[in-house]
Amino acid sequence: MKTAFHNLVPNGTRVPVRFDGQVLLLLEGTNLAAALLEVGVSRIRRSPVSGAARGPFCMMGPCQGRYCGLAVTELLAAYHDMPQNEVGAYRIRAPLIPVTLAEIAGLDEEPLVNAPH
Amino acid sequence: MTVIDGDDGSLRASRGNFGLIWVQSKGLKQTRYAQWTQSSAAAWRGFADELSDLTGTDLGLRQEGGLDLHFSESTLAATVQQYEGLRGSLGGNYPFEVLGANALRKEEPHIGPKVVGAILHHQDGHANPLRLLQALADGVRRRGAYVLNGRQVKAVDKADIFRISCNDGTQVRARKLVLSAGLGAITLGPKLGFRAPLRPQRGQVLITEKLPKLINRPSITARQVDEGGIQNGATNEEVGLDDSVTRKGLATLAREAIAAYPVLGAAQLVRSWGALRILSPDDLPIYQESGTMPGAYLVTCHSGITLAAAHALHLPDWLESTTDAPDLKVFHEDRFP
Fold it and tell me: ipTM score here?
């Protein structure tokens, strides 16, 4: 499949993954969204409102565990040769990983850790 | 006109908004507040159209009524009685109806069995508050105003005109000055001759993933945004200048949302946040000209979305003392002991 995305480290073991009725050979240990993008799968769902195609891209939301925020901090720190804590981070908004309202409703009363701005 | 605005870290009620344009339940103790709210709700369509024409931004305005959901017959009956009293004070202009469980289910097919009924008020509605903020910030520039971001006002003095000094050395001169700094008025108000008896009150809200149409009319418990997400609100907490979210707050909101619309239990929560309301001792707005610095006005309120149209279209007449000026005497700050 043709893809606009290129894996910067393409070498490694590939494993068969069935996606939408098709067997794809994806790099073992890679973030699933990134592995799918690499082999040309950029539409993983449709908007429930407009029906438009939706794909998993950086900073679009609670998509892949929000690791991209940390990656942005790391990249900026490396580029500017600064400590990561000087670069700072986006203000983290709970939840850090997708969670249903039913799961949230069952939580106890412990305070959440919330990053100050 | 120059707008002096704070920085990204400033406490901003405008970023925590629920987006309701809400008439019902307001002004039960002060009829003039109900009227002022109604005048703004009535002006909202024209206000939204003007902003859309100016900026090309669709505000997602829907004014097709709003619901006050009840989980017990006794709270429903008590609220209806209060609304009937207010309707009398307003000369009958208070169009609401009571929906029993069956009638409500016809309007809202996903409502849960714990909801015994609702009050449908036809003057209620909602809009997209982030688009409103964006359109106002864009529109004021297009109309020729200057917006100075990232600044804090440190001092104000007045000889013939006002001289406003900011923390970065910026100075602005003006014939008139409107202090609408939210919680910042607690500090700045006394420098301009106001008492500004304000306090923060935290509200936590959460929003789900984008979903197909599940909710037709908004309520203070849940509303479906024009983009598909369902927003659930909001807590009322007296915790000072702390806008963080808590596990207890989110759990409470999620439980209420599921009690109202059980189908939401399976919906994914994508984000939560907290923001601070700006409240006076009786929770109503303050509109006050300074006694010691004439030409300086304090404008502060909760319900900034609901009142946005009145503030944009009617308040300028009050600031300029024209013959069309709305009567805002009951909102002077000398009402507080």
Answer: 0.86
